[in-house]
Amino acid sequence: MAHDHHQHDQQHTGHGHGHGHGHGTDIDWNEMGPLLESQAELFTPVYERAMAWLAKEVTEPGLIVDAGSGPGVVSCLFAEVFPGARVVAVDSTAPLLERARARAARQGVADRFDTVAGELPEALDELEYPADLLWASRSLHHLGDQRAALAAFARRLASGGTLALLEGGLPSRFLPRDIGIGRPGLQARLDALEEDWFARMRADLPGSVAETEDWPALLTAAGLKHTRTRTFLLDLPAPAGDRARAYVAAHLSRVREGLADALDADDRATLDRLLDPADPASVHVRPDVFVLGAYTVHTAVRPA
Question: Does the predicted TM-score (pTM) go above 0.85?
Fold first, then answer.
């Protein structure tokens, strides 16, 4: 199943991925760009809180790198939150980096905003100098050897620089357990199918290495110190606004397409109703749609 991208979306169906690595050659990124930007904007409260937390540790960074930036919504947010920093957005997908540069220009930060096109982690070798903050939001888990990639990330840090990894958290919820159609517990069943999909995705990556997902331990193994972990909530209560509904519909559409063969007939029919704008039970109009997600950030510092 082609993952669409970006830190804001619960990407590859259930595990929001991070951005930037165009594994899906069948994806039209020019077409996906506006959707990814809109979804990233929906998640802005999470990123703002995460950045406020990071700012307590990362004081006046000179260079911030967004490793797997997608269309640059978070990269540009870094430029706003850290006005003294130069920001480099790194992604394998050129059309998304074009959107990132255009966004930086619109927001008046283009004079300290750069992009690097290439696959992680190798693309980081193109950086002109080490990073004071390297942010990787759900991009690491698309790399086969996560331990080796983390070591490569760590090598690109300046002395005393911070690596911030957004991985883990909790599956998002959009609907009550009993939605009045189909069997109750639909999202829990989808979570289980998405976990299976995620395991297959990881196993099929080039050079895939199975790894215990103890992110602080992996950061320590990469030679970093002072690990910290904090989780941030996205809590958009019902009734959801138009942008949140669009996000929920896009997410469930990808689940419906990507897991169709694994869904039982009842759940498939329920999803079809949830996605039909003409159905009063659809997520487009029903009053009980919400977005609740938990996003975990792990940090560690390169010893001085």
Answer: yes
